[in-house]
Write a structure and sequence with these properties.
The chain folds into 2 domains: 3-110, 3-Layer(aba) Sandwich (Udp-n-acetylmuramoylalanyl-d-glutamate--2,6- Diaminopimelate Ligase, Chain: A, domain 1); 130-264, 2-Layer Sandwich (Heat Shock Protein 90), CATH 3.30.565.10. Helices cover 36% and strands 25% of the residues. The protein has helices spanning 3-10, 34-40, 54-62, 80-86, 98-110, 146-158, 162-182, 211-214, 224-228, 236-243, and strands at residues 13-16, 27-30, 45-49, 67-70, 90-93, 130-137, 183-192, 196-205, 246-252, 256-264. A 5-stranded mixed β-sheet has the order 1-5-4-3-2, with helices on both faces. β4 (67-70), α4 (80-86) and β5 (90-93) form a beta-alpha-beta unit. 34% of the residues are buried.
């Protein structure tokens, strides 16, 4: 993948090395531990890191990387630019965090565009400030988590409390994985008001025969194949309940399930 494509996906600024943007890299390595970069990094890679120092650039050079992307808007101020210039490394800076940056690059490699709108909250009122709809495809493990990632990024751009965003993201991801494992498809609705965030996941699938039993920690109907992929430990619905301020579940066997999660702002 060309470094310039990575720059576009991350909406990154060029700190140094604009002449090298046409170069291609074979691997993306994300780490703040330079010892790991040196131990496990592969040549012809680009480094994503929150360590804004010359040591990160030197480590990338020693590992024969082609450049460094500093995340969370960081920029080194200790001579890193000169070292990069002297050793023909590209330095970029992106406002994204590590997780979102990796998701953006992965999506760009797959040819999938993720639109993360910038949304500003108006004055306090009871009106709905933000509404979005998303769709999840059942059994599509390759794209599992993409809707949750998009919702997380939207809420972060609004400027909500990171702890609240984390709770919403975890709950949405658990709900999304339930759809991928057990349903045909689902529609996800995101609604934000000045007072709360509401996530509704309405799926078409098997339904839940016994909701009370499904809410017990450790209860699962996941197949061995799902468990082999690391899913289906029986913590999905309990984890949603733990992270949301309220959870309402309506399910009909053979029709589907609706999860309605509310988070107070």
């Amino acid at each position: 993948m060309e470094i310039n494509k990575i720059r576009e996906a991350l909406e990154a600024n060029v700190i140094e090395g604009s002449y090298g943007l046409d170069a291609s890299v074979e691997h993306i390595y994300a780490s703040d531990l330079m010892s790991d970069v040196l131990a496990f990094g592969k040549p012809c890679s680009i480094l994503l890191t929150g360590l804004a120092s010359r040591q990160a650039v030197i480590s990338a050079h020693m590992a024969e990387f082609k450049g460094v992307v500093f995340i969370r808007g960081k920029r080194p101020k200790d001579g890193a630019e000169k070292f990069a210039r002297d050793n023909h490394l590209v330095l970029l800076s992106s406002d994204l965090d590590m997780f979102d940056a990796c998701i953006r690059i992965d999506s760009a490699m797959k040819g999938v565009h993720i639109d993360l709108p910038t949304v500003k909250l108006p004055q306090k009122s009871d009106e709905i400030l933000l509404k979005h709809e998303f769709y999840i495809e059942g059994s599509n493990f390759a794209n599992a988590g993409m809707v949750s990632t998009e919702i997380k990024s939207i809420l972060k751009k609004i400027g909500l409390d990171p702890k609240l965003v984390r709770r919403v993201a975890i709950s949405t991801y658990e709900g999304e994985m339930n759809v991928v494992m057990h349903a045909k498809r689902a529609r996800v609705r995101l609604g934000v008001t000045p007072k709360l965030i509401e996530i509704e996941i309405n799926d078409e699938g098997k339904g839940i025969p016994d909701v009370e039993l499904a809410m017990q920690e450790g209860f699962t109907t996941a197949t061995e194949e799902m468990r082999a992929m690391g899913f289906g430990s029986g913590m999905g619905l309990p984890n949603i309940k733990r992270n949301s301020d309220s959870l309402n579940i309506k399910s009909e066997v053979g029709v589907g399930t609706t999860l309605k999660m509310t988070f107070l702002i």
